[in-house]
Specification:
The protein is α+β, with helices and mostly antiparallel strands. It has helices at residues 3-23, 65-82; strands spanning 37-38, 44-45, 53-62, 90-101, 104-114.
């Protein structure tokens, strides 16, 4: 496949990835950075820029689900910051909260960080 064929396929791959994200319930999608190549899993690899990715988890408890989730997110952010990550480099990927009885809730938060 020639270079011109690859350039025509890249916008199609980005459009398909965006459609898949929207169909899966994701509210937003991003186009590939300039010069990036599509790799497995819908991610993009840019040969010019290396990035570091980490996931941190935290636990929290509270008397409401939101209080438990807030505590879990704060814990995960504290762990990430102690490892040298800035708040702007991290976002909450997932949370899980459940009742443990007696009006108390326990939560786990997963924080995704990239630099």
């Amino acid at each position: 496949m020639g270079r011109s064929s690859a350039f025509r396929l890249r916008p199609l791959a980005v459009a398909l990835a965006a459609s898949a994200c929207l169909a899966a319930g994701t509210a937003s999608a991003q186009a590939a950075p300039a010069g990036a190549e599509a790799v497995a899993g819908g991610a993009y690899a840019n040969p010019d820029v290396l990035s570091e990715v980490r996931t941190f988890t935290g636990n929290g408890v509270g008397t409401s689900p939101s209080q438990a989730v807030d505590g879990a997110v704060r814990t995960a952010r504290a762990v990430a910051q102690s490892a040298g990550w800035q708040a702007s480099q991290c976002h909450v990927r997932a949370t899980d909260v459940r009742s443990v009885g007696g009006g108390v809730y326990a939560a786990v938060a997963s924080l995704f960080c990239q630099r």
